[in-house]
Design a protein that fits this description.
The chain is α+β, with helices and mostly antiparallel strands. It has 3 domains: 377 residues, no CATH class; 62 residues, Regulator of K+ conductance, C-terminal domain (Alpha-Beta Plaits); 75 residues, 2-Layer Sandwich (Alpha-Beta Plaits). Helices cover 58% and strands 11% of the residues. A 5-stranded antiparallel sheet has the order 3-2-4-1-5. Helix 8 packs parallel to helix 19. It is elongated and about 95 Å long.
């Protein structure tokens, strides 16, 4: 093993990607659905390798500049992801979930700062406990920023390396309960409160027209269809398409085929006996009104009309706040199928009372002309692109670093967001502007995921490797127990506070509130388990707003936890 560790020491790039690869592999392992995940595994693998190597007298070390670079890319990626949802949540009903997120984050921060001071824990533990107990791995980086930027004063005899080691150690000790604890608490909170969340979900589904989509699989049912009919009914012959649609607005004529020629579907085309008409509409309408034109025929030429599949970005103020049911009797009804809605990058359940918000992404399929019409009414078509606007990426990074240079007096020193916080804000600004204008700043989801996933796991792996050698000298059973206790309380208390405020003060539906509690902790696991517990998709409705807000707050608070503690 001595030769192996010396080889890793001499080849830092192999060491880095060996650690990352092992972390990803271990992170995929799970027991009954629970596992470390690749980020926590990166700390374990990196620190474990470093400690093991130190027993052979080999010190493993990775470049600090590389660590910072990957963390900065990650922070910018987070800003890009949450930007539109963050801005859009600061109004309307979303404000309730914004308040709940602030309460959860600051209650957790207060518990951690008090706990660290009461137990007189070593420098670095506050940032690590916040990152682990709140399951916000990004806070490791902001906590490190407080050390490297000199924003916190280290006790005499404590080196920056030792403080970084305690950040990693505290994160590892508190992460497991931070993950499992919030899932269990969110899952069973209604039961402990004596609330029937399953019944509340059913009531919400019934009154708001929300379907439970979590357990649906591939079926033969299609709510919309396109069929061909031969014109034989005397009441239809001689009427134009515009006249036909005025009588039957639930249909859209896609094409008229006459004597082997395609006439299209212009409003002034008059129908003649023997024409074959392609009709689009809801399955119920196509079935109930069967024969209104004539018999159905299998005419491939008539049905050979262009369909479109697209994502529509909602940008128009005129449709903001409108429930989907308002579009039932418009010319779009029966012409397009709404397959899903994403809000802040998170899919939400669809119901007739689901209200559109600006920057929602609607996934639609239907007649090409209808899709284009829907885009004109609601916003614009967002065509997927595999190209990344590197110019905007570079400009956004520069803007973030400039924001990070801004400082103001606080806590007896000059403090600021730092590079990481500046990049987070920059990502929010760029993604918010890009979502409005759509002519620049394209960053496909795949590219953004690389920034986030690769950036965070590489950063955490380097933290683990560099901190590992000093962990053995700092760790004692007493310190580890105190760290765990502080993390346990910081994880467990805020969800109860959030639930009490949401249920008693804001009167939020309990099923929706389960998702709100998960969102306030920026953790999708509790929302997923809550949905399974009550057999409903309703918890996901309360998730997106809190997810966006707490994701930013908890990341930044890692920095201030170090200063305050």
């Amino acid at each position: 093993m001595d030769t192996f560790f010396q080889f890793l020491q001499a080849n830092p790039f192999i060491l880095l990607f060996f650690t990352v690869g092992a972390a990803v592999g271990i992170g995929r392992l799970s027991i009954k659905g629970y596992g470390l995940g690749m980020v926590a595994a990166a700390i374990v693998v990196g620190a474990g390798l470093s400690i093991w190597a130190s027993t052979y007298g080999v010190k493993l070390q990775l470049n600090e500049w590389v660590k910072s670079l990957f963390y900065y890319l990650f922070m910018y990626g987070v800003g890009l992801r949450v930007g539109p949802s963050f801005v859009n949540s600061l109004k309307g009903d979303g404000l309730k979930f914004v308040v709940l997120s602030f309460v959860s984050c600051f209650v957790g921060l207060a518990i951690i700062v008090l706990g660290v001071r009461i137990f007189d824990l070593p420098a670095g533990t506050a940032g690590g406990i916040l990152a682990g107990s709140q399951t916000m791995s990004a806070a490791i980086g902001s906590a490190e920023q407080a050390v490297t930027a000199g924003a916190m004063t280290l006790p005499p005899g404590t080196t920056p390396e030792q403080a970084s080691g305690m950040i990693a150690l505290s994160y590892g000790i508190t992460y497991i309960w931070g993950t499992v604890g919030i899932i269990l608490i969110c899952k069973y909170l209604p039961r402990w409160w004596g609330v029937d969340a399953r019944g509340a979900a059913m009531e919400y589904e019934r009154t708001h027209g929300v379907q439970n989509v979590d357990d649906t699989g591939l079926t033969g049912y299609r709510p919309f269809g396109l069929r061909a009919y031969r014109v034989e009914d005397a009441d239809v012959v001689g009427h134009t398409i515009a006249e036909f649609r005025s009588k039957y607005p639930m249909y859209r004529v896609g094409n008229v085929q006459r004597d082997g020629r395609s006439l299209g579907a212009a409003a002034d085309v008059a129908l003649e006996s023997g024409d074959v008409v392609a009709l689009g509409g809801r399955l119920e309408d196509l079935t109930v009104n069967m024969g209104v034109i004539g018999p159905e025929v299998a005419d491939s030429d008539a049905l050979n009309i262009p369909l479109d599949q697209a994502e529509i970005l909602v940008t128009r103020k005129e449709v903001e706040g409108k429930p989907l049911i308002d579009f039932r009797h418009t010319e779009l009804a029966g012409q397009i199928q709404l397959g899903g809605i994403e809000r802040g990058g998170v899919p939400i359940p669809i119901g007739t009372d689901t209200k559109l918000q600006r920057f929602d992404v609607l996934k639609v399929v239907g007649l090409k002309t209808a899709v284009e019409r829907a885009a004109n009414i609601m916003g614009r078509i967002a065509r997927p692109s595999t190209a990344t606007d590197l110019l905007t990426l570079s400009g956004g990074m520069i803007l973030g670093f400039l924001i990070g240079l801004i400082q103001f007096p606080a806590f007896g020193a000059s403090v600021g967001l730092g590079n990481a916080g500046g990049l987070l804000v920059s990502g929010v600004i760029v993604s918010s502007v890009a979502s409005r204008l759509r002519f620049f700043g394209n960053t496909p989801n795949a590219a953004r995921n690389v920034l986030e996933d690769m950036g965070l796991v590489v950063f955490v792996a380097i933290v683990g490797v560099n901190a590992g050698a000093s962990l053995l000298s700092q760790l004692t059973g007493g310190i580890a127990l105190k760290i765990f206790l502080v993390g346990f309380v910081a994880c467990s208390v805020p969800p109860f506070v959030v639930w009490a405020l949401g249920y008693h003060l804001f009167k939020i539906n309990p099923a929706v509130l389960m998702g709100g509690v998960a969102g306030a902790r920026s953790h999708s696991g509790p929302a997923r388990e809550a949905a399974k517990e009550i057999d409903s998709s309703v918890p996901w409705i309360g998730f997106p707003v809190g997810y966006a807000i707490s994701g930013i707050l908890l990341t930044v608070l890692g920095y201030f936890a170090m200063i305050l503690a």
